[in-house]
Amino acid sequence: MKKTREDPLEAGLRNAYCYLSVDGVRILSITVRQIDKPLPPEDWKNATSYYRMAAERRVTFPGRAVIGADGALVVAKCGSPTAYILFDVDFYGGRVENTQDGYKKLQRFLEDFTPAVTKKLQCAT
Q1: Sign of dihedral through CA atoms 47, 72, 63, 32?
Q2: How far is CA 71 from CA 15, 29, 48, 81, 91, in A?
Q3: 16-33: buried (b, 16+ CB within 10 Å) or exposed (e) per residue?
Q4: How far is CA 66 from the centre of its chain?
Q5: Are 17 and 7 in contact (CB under 8 A)?
Q6: Do the beta carbons of residue 66 and residue 48 sit within 8 Å?
Q7: 99 versus 47: which is more confidently predicted?
Q8: Which of 5, 88, 101, 114 is placed for a possible disulfide with 31 were both Cys, Cβ 3.0 to 4.6 Å?
Q9: Cα-flanking dihedrals φ and ψ of residue 33, to 5°?
Q10: Beta strands in 4-70 (DSSP E)
Q11: Residue 60, Cβ neighbours under 10 Å: how many?
């Protein structure tokens, strides 16, 4: 039997953490932070070299993202109660596909997750 554990995010927090584990093994770790300024160019460059098969990817929500097979750095534009919401994402285990198209699984997840979290955190653009 597979067990999952979710640590909920709450509106009004400056920093939040979300972990997803299956059978006691962590498969996804996300740190969510409210930030007031855009990230400097070197943070985007570092993210591109940090994650496997990473590149800046076009996303369906207002913001910017570097997404790789095993993680992502995402900034969603907000405006209120903060200028941006930053997502640091690490993906682990057998679900990581280290190929040129491996990022697609994580991007599909982020396309749903990011707008849902920004809404929950009462982000208004």
Answers
A1: negative
A2: 19, 9, 10, 26, 5
A3: bebeebeeeeebbbbebb
A4: 9
A5: yes
A6: yes
A7: 47
A8: 88
A9: -130, 145
A10: 4-6, 15-22, 25-35, 55-57, 63-67
A11: 11
The dihedral sign for the CA sequence 34, 17, 66, 103: negative
Query: What pLDDT, on a 0 to 100 scale, did the predictor assign at position 13?
Result: 59
pLDDT tens digits for range 32-41: 999 999 999 9
Nearest to 90 by CA among 104, 106, 105: 106
Judge residue 11's burial from the number of C-beta atoms within 10 Å of its C-beta, 0-12 exposed, 13-18 middle, 19 or more buried: exposed
Average the pLDDT over 47-56 and give the result: 94
Neighbours of 1 (CB within 10 A): 3
Global pTM reads 0.85
Residue carrying the six token digits 């992502």: 72
Residue 1 has pLDDT above 60, yes or no: no
pLDDT value for 4: 47
pLDDT mean over 5-27: 72
Tokens standing for 46?
């570092």
